[in-house]
Specification:
2 copies of one chain form a homodimer. By secondary structure, chain A is an alpha/beta fold. Helix content of chain A is 42%, strand content 14%. Chain A is built from 14 helices and 14 strands. In chain A, the strands form 4 sheets. In chain A, strands 2-10-9-8-5-3-4 form a 7-stranded mixed β-sheet, sandwiched between helices. In chain A, strands 11-14-13 form a 3-stranded antiparallel β-sheet, with helices on one face. In chain A, strands 1-12 form a two-stranded parallel sheet. In chain A, helix 4 links the parallel strand 3 and strand 4. Chain A is globular, with a radius of gyration of 21 Å.
């Protein structure tokens, strides 16, 4: 046998996540492990809650990071809120709406699907029809930022609709948090989950969540036990909860939490509005470059996520070959299409720490070379087009 | 607001876990994040499987780390193996057997409890009676190394009994793996879960699991969907499984996996039998010191876990005050008692990287001072008693 230590290559991560992690966050990960009941750690937990409240723009007491990746954050929302027999209106306009449906059904609930084309927003009119037609529905669930398509739906309007029809709103903000406005309190979101490996630029493995008082009330009044012991908030909150005694439930992922804490400190230093602006601005530069070389984006301009750009693969171009060469020759990772968009789009992320001018230029330069060599684009114009935008900031 | 970066204190972790993490592992955590579908990462995943097979002493194909702490590993075993209505014989001789019961019931199963006193082993006679009385039981579930008491049960005998009565054996090895023999293949264990923050000395956040072919067959023939989407092995194995296409299921906790990989490389370098011996040896030294100062261990000598020593708190001694002073004045963490043993025992861990002569001496010295100042022990003899044992190795 004799397996050696693993030394990963140094990539530039411009896919759908994980995104490049700041050296400050990597350094934080390597700080000495302490106990999950250590008073010093408990102090850090209090700060973590405040930092997540800042990122989510909420005063929700029930705000903390689930000890597992975003999918577990999603499951935390569904298993704690739903009881068997509950009806949920689930919007699907990409991969992750389908995952919500799976969650509903595995909780013994019924999912009423509102389907929209992949690459389009969730249509509020269809949602209202579904809410009208299903007065017994208890929840509306939708994806704010569809990581599989790069579309941003109108969360504010959808949450308003949910409340108008007496439903609670469950929102997937895995890719939006930190990259584009997410206003938990102002929009009245009842349950929200995110990930650390997108615009927060911490390593994957944790899932920030937040619940409104109304959602907390629903959880408190459950008639059945939560089907997951690990994710049961009535137990987890004995450790993380407001006024909790920090009673042992499971062992928290200490070092990963150091990393998330540091990434949130960085977000706070920059200011979240500035972070949103940075994402919007570099998206414009990337877009200018992509369009100059003749590539087009999948999503309508008004509905685009700045942090996730779904680029239509030109006719005749070998998807895997391009991504392979970018990775091998340029150490650059961009994402493949998922589901029905596999082979049809690339997903170029500009997330968190990775969202900067150097990366925009490097990505365009690399694509210029790889696609130019194939004769698939107009060569030598992309970087200049991006630079024009980038200079406009000065 | 303005929250600053978090700098944890440098502790010596001799509680029930997390244990001290090797500098090599901390350094590995800080290596650059790469994508979960990156070919370099996929190569690391193959090595991870081999390393875990080495640690578990198994050839099981279905061996991988769950992307969440030990409690999620436990849940992975139960939600994938059980279907509603299934009967499980659950042995409880501490906190963690109770957690197994919770898992069984939340899966819609029935738990038949075999109870033993906390601090005693699981009694094979009682288990056999229960198996006889419940011919419709499908599983026997027990804790190999009870982290709450420091007891090691006879896993080999219990698994044999399970098979004799046509049950599959589900085993909690959170605290045993890497510290004391765990022979998955030789003992015929069907499903096993562990943690990273005990004798493997990686940070918490992952849970190594392994399933026998027989267990894999049960999972394959399920009639109902697994209630957890996140932990559903039929999906997870599309990413981790043998011959898998490494299809995206959830985003793996990349940097945490770097850490576990490094800690398993260290285990392999030392040789697992040597690691077992190291734990047994330093336990003897610690024991000699504790006994010299007049303290006693909760558990019968034959049933003790070398890596987790439950020490009876002398009459009249303030539990919390002692642990508080150890932490504050000596940066030394030892564990409190859990459940019925709260206030009655301390739990002193000698786990993985933390299991060495320096720590044995440091712990005894610190206890000597704190308890000596209280007049609760015979002062000034513990370290010498331990050193006598430690020197015997030379």
């Amino acid at each position: 046998m004799a397996i050696k230590s693993f030394t990963p290559p140094q990539r530039t991560l411009m896919g759908p996540g994980p995104s490049d992690v700041s050296p400050r966050v990597l350094e934080a990960l390597a700080r000495p492990t302490i106990g999950h009941l250590d008073p010093a750690f408990v102090g850090m937990m209090d700060e973590m809650k405040q930092l997540l409240q800042y990122a989510f723009r909420t005063k929700n007491e029930l705000t903390f990071p689930v000890s597992a990746p975003g999918s577990a954050g999603m499951e935390t929302c569904f298993v704690n809120l739903l009881e068997p027999g509950d009806k949920v209106i689930v919007c699907q306009n990409g991969v992750f709406g389908g995952r919500m449906k799976e969650n509903v059904e595995r909780c013994g609930g019924t999912a009423v699907m509102v389907e929209d084309e992949w690459g389009k927003v969730v249509d509020p009119n269809k949602v209202e029809e579904a809410l009208k037609a299903n007065p017994d529905a208890k929840f509306l669930a939708f994806v704010h930022a569809e990581t599989s398509t790069g579309v941003q739906s109108d969360a504010k309007t959808l949450v308003e609709l949910a409340h108008q029809y007496d439903c609670l709103a469950i929102v997937d903000a895995v890719t939006s948090l930190g990259g584009t406005p997410v206003e938990v309190d102002a929009w009245g979101i009842d349950a929200i989950y995110s990930g650390t490996q997108k615009c927060l630029s911490a390593p994957p493995g944790l899932s920030p969540v937040s619940f409104s008082d109304r959602a907390a009330e629903v959880i408190k009044n459950r008639k059945t036990k939560v089907q997951s012991w690990f994710l049961d908030l009535s137990l987890v909150m004995g450790y993380w909860g407001p006024g909790a005694k920090r009673a042992y439930h499971h062992t928290a992922p200490i070092n990963n939490l150091y990393g998330l804490h540091e990434s949130l400190v960085i977000l706070q230093e920059e200011g979240i509005e500035n972070a949103w602006q940075r994402h919007a601005f570099h998206h414009q530069a990337l877009k200018a470059g992509l369009e100059a070389m003749g590539l087009s984006l999948l999503v309508n301009e008004a509905d685009r996520l700045p942090q996730l750009n779904a680029v239509v693969i030109p006719e005749g171009v070998d998807d895997a070959a391009v991504r392979g060469r970018l990775l091998q020759d340029f150490n650059l990772e961009i994402g493949a299409g998922l589901g029905t968009l596999a082979g049809k789009v690339w997903r170029i992320g500009l997330m968190g720490h990775a969202c900067n001018a150097n990366n925009v230029e490097y990505c365009l330069q690399s694509l210029d070379q790889v696609l130019g060599d194939m004769g698939a684009i107009e060569k030598g114009v992309a970087v200049a087009a991006a630079q024009t935008v980038l200079k406009s900031a000065a």
